Each structure stands twice: as C-alpha cells, then as structure tokens.
Automatic annotation (TrEMBL):
The family this protein is said to belong to: Belongs to the Fur family.
Protein name (database record): Ferric uptake regulation protein
This protein's record includes keyword Metal-binding: yes
Complex formation: Homodimer.
Keyword DNA-binding: yes
High-level lineage: Bacteria, Pseudomonadati, Pseudomonadota, Alphaproteobacteria, Rhodobacterales
UniProt-listed GO biological process terms: negative regulation of DNA-templated transcription; regulation of secondary metabolite biosynthetic process
Coiled-coil residues: none
Entry keyword set: Cytoplasm, DNA-binding, Iron, Metal-binding, Repressor, Transcription, Transcription regulation, Zinc
Compartment(s) of residence: Cytoplasm
SUPFAM superfamilies documented for this protein: Winged helix' DNA-binding domain
Entry's Gene Ontology cellular component terms: cytoplasm
Example GO molecular function: DNA-binding transcription factor activity
Amino acid sequence: MTTPTATELGTRWLASAGLRPTRQRVALAALLVGDGMDRHVTAESLFAASMQTDERVSLATVYNTLRAFCDAGLMQEVVVDGSKSYFDTRMDDHPHFFWEDSGELTDAPADQLEIARLPDAPAGTEVAKVDVVIRLKRA
C-alpha cells in the first residue's frame, strides 16, 4: 500500500468538510495537513510557505481560504491580543502557549489544565467556548 501524498491528504481533508477542491484550496490544504501533523499558522506564515511551492497564491486568497476552512469546521481561529490570529488544524478543545519572544503558538498539555469554575453567563446567554492562551516569556 502506498503512502498518500500531501496533495491527496489535503484533498481528502477538504472532502471531509464538503469543500470544493479548487487548485488554491488543495495547495494550501496540502501545506496544512499534508504530513499528518497539526499546525498553528498565521495567514502570513501560510502565504510565505506557499511562495516556496509551485502553486503560489495571493495573501488575500490565503485569508479567504483560511476563513472558509474555519467556517467548514476544518480549523479553528485562536486570537492573541485581539489583533493577531492563528489558525489551528487541531479541532478538539485544548489550551495554547503563546511564546511572547518568538510570536509562536503551540499546544499546551490539556491534561494539566483544570478550570474549576466559570462566572455565570449573563441572562439570556450561554457559554459557547472557553479559549485558554497562556502567555510565556523567557525568565
């Protein structure tokens, strides 16, 4: 049995969410999931990675494609500082480390996180999700 290529894995990933496999989507999907590893990317870092391939796409296309992937449930957006967005291919609920010195976002061990209690949601609302980003700096 042959190992699937990055393009094949990307195409399957798109199909799992019912997304049409356009040339640009397949190219970006291959970069995101083509090796089977989870990724935390910014639009700019994915754009830079795409520039190293034969299938170049514009930065606007990268932004639009990441939004489509999030809307389809393939990725989740992690906002740091209210202005910097990272896009995560790992879809389960899990905390993140944000490394202030390098600007890198990595997964934090979920089994070590305990949230004992949340504040009551205001009347007429419910908690949809809790995002945990732990900011780190070198000592």
